[in-house]
Amino acid sequence: MADVLLKSFTKRYGSITALENFSLEIKNGEFVTLLGPSGCGKTTLLRMIAGLETIDGGELYIGGRLYNNVPSQKRKIAMVFQSYALFPHMSVRRNIMFGLKINKIPQEQINQKLEWVVNLLHLKGLEERYPREISGGQRQRVALARALVLDPDLLLLDEPLSNLDAALRETAIEELKRIHHHVGKTILYVTHNQVEAMSMSERIALMNFGHLEQYDRPKVIYDQPKTVFCGEFIGSPPMNFFTGEIHVESGVTGIMTNIGYLKLDSERANKVKDFNGRKVVAGVRPQNVYFKGHHARRRHTDSDIEISVELIENLGDRSLVIGRNKSGTLIRFLITRDDEIQIEGKMSIFADGRQIHLFDPSTRLNIFH
Amino acid sequence: MSQIDRKLPMAVGKKVIWGSGILLAVFIVLGPVYLLIKYSISDVSSINTGGEPIPLWPYHPTLSIYSYLFSDIRFYRVLMNSIIIALSSVGLSMLLGVPAAYILGTYRIPGRKTILLGIISVRLFPDIASVIPIVQLFINLGVHQTYLGVIMAHTLLALPYVIFIGIGAFESIPKDLEQQAWVMGADRFQTFVKILFPLAIPGLAAAAIYTFLLSWDEFIFAYFLSLGREDIFTLTLYLNGIKYAEPQNLLSAISVCLSLPVIIFTLMVQRYMVAGVTTGSMK
After folding, report:
1. pLDDT in tens, A245-284
2. Rounded CA separation A144/A121 (Å)
3. Which of A53, B87, B95, B170 has the fewest CB atoms within 10 Å distance of its CB?
4. Start-end ranges of CATH 1.10.3720.10 in chain B?
């Protein structure tokens, strides 16, 4: 049993507050990702859990036990550093055995564990090599093996894939999911890469400026971003934001924004019908904007926006179009690659009324959730 | 990258320029060594030629001067003295310097800069200026005219360098490696013994060579501290005692004997000075 509980963590460096009143609970066996831009405090948080940084305020519980004053040597935690930190003067085998030897595990058990982890992570044949003699992907696996073999209550991973090239990263993501499924360890994973976070984690803790923006399943964060930041950070290409106000007129509800009029679906319209004139920030994902040619997508709730095409980026299967309306507001949206459009050409687009997110301009919170 | 670069073919002109440059450098370095060895195996007629130009190679090469040298019990003692004092100085300065370098190189210590300045300040004065007060101090301590006195003096001279080279060696080890060891359950001592020390060995080996050379070559402190005790004289003092002796072959033979242990010691320790031991640990 190793539920992890972070209770109002605080960390200060002089006058700079890196973390403020940060709380998080992780269930036993869960794969949780700390996601956020660089400098948001996610690595600091990880290092506090590992015992490499002091906890200035708050409490850390692992398996119900208070860990604040337990030195890192005594925490049942394993960590994979971003740099992997393999010991260069030791072979792969000795790197993996290091922690076991230090903890005085009997040699027989060490051999068993070594055998197990070498098979699990496909390191067979590499045991006698030195870190400088193996590839980046192999180093990453050795670092992971070295952590797993310690049988930790909690496994901390600090951007372990950031040094791999794109193709290798794909494989490593699959590998990590497979391993998590196989060993069932509680994993806390740090990354600034939303694709990694979305594809691997059971829950994502989205961080910004040292506080928690949203903590939920990837799908929920994507579908129901709690704040403007969440909408902005999750999803690629990034969400479009328009400022405007709620407009209720003779039973039709929409938002008058700087890009144009966005009609809401009946469910959303119902929720905001009493707020005529309220200022809002409307967020629309590029995936939910279509151009008028797509009759199949068209619904009676949608209304047209006239734009001129400024740029087209080819994404392979689709193209990203950046358009501008008469007043100069930009909008990004996706089209299929078969759609024929011209740069500087005029076109008519519409946003899916069911997929419009509304945020309060001052609190930046989603007004639906 | 660098491995690929090295394999690129070089233009012929470049090869000639580099080649002759290297030859010249080899000549400058090996010229004196050649003279030294030549004189040490020369017979008397190849040195006192009576107006004839001195030959490039002795007429009758002979090792007689070496057999003379090694039959002299005094020379043996002096050689042993030098070896004992140099190795002990290496041992003592490593024993004191490595822990100091480890602490100063890996811990955040208040007043670190002041401490470093204090350590290096020992070498701010010329040896000739500091030798008198130190000899005075050593007389009071009762280590004057002893091996220990000379060893302590040489340690004093080498220690600042050992500490500075050592700090560099420990600082160059990525912090992640140390912290990784902690997270895996190693305490500070285990981390030092199993991770930091092995990785600092190249730098520390350089410091050891430096200390050996310093002690082996040192004259002023050895002179003032062992004056009146010829039985603890080192090679440099011995050489000083016979510097006016003729012919040159005796002096040359002693010089060769002075150089050999240095070369042997350096070769022995040098294999630990492999550059780039931390390659592959990061990224």
Report:
1. 998 887 788 888 988 888 888 888 888 888 888 999 999 9
2. 8
3. B95
4. 72-278
pLDDT tens for B185-227 read 999 999 999 999 999 998 898 899 889 989 998 999 999 998 8
Report d(CA A263, CA A256) in Å as an integer.
9
Inter-chain touch A98–B282, beta carbons under 8 Å:
no
List, edge to edge, every strand of the sheet that includes A304-314: A289-291, A346-351, A304-314, A318-324, A330-336
Contact A325, A306 (CB under 8 A): yes
Question: Is B274 near chain A, with CB under 8 Å?
Answer: no
d(CA A149, CA A161): 20
Q: Nearest C-alpha of chain A: how many angstroms from B121?
A: 34
Check CB contact of A83 with chain B, cutoff 8 Å.
Answer: yes
Q: Does B278 touch chain A (CB under 8 A)?
A: yes
Q: Taking CB atoms and an 8 Å cutoff, what residues of chain A touch B278?
A: 88
Domain B72-278: CATH superfamily is: MetI-like (1.10.3720.10)
Under 8 Å CB pairs connecting chains A and B tally to: 86
> What is the predicted ipTM?
0.84
Q: Per-residue pLDDT tens for A13-59?
A: 888 888 888 999 999 999 999 999 988 889 999 999 999 999 988 99
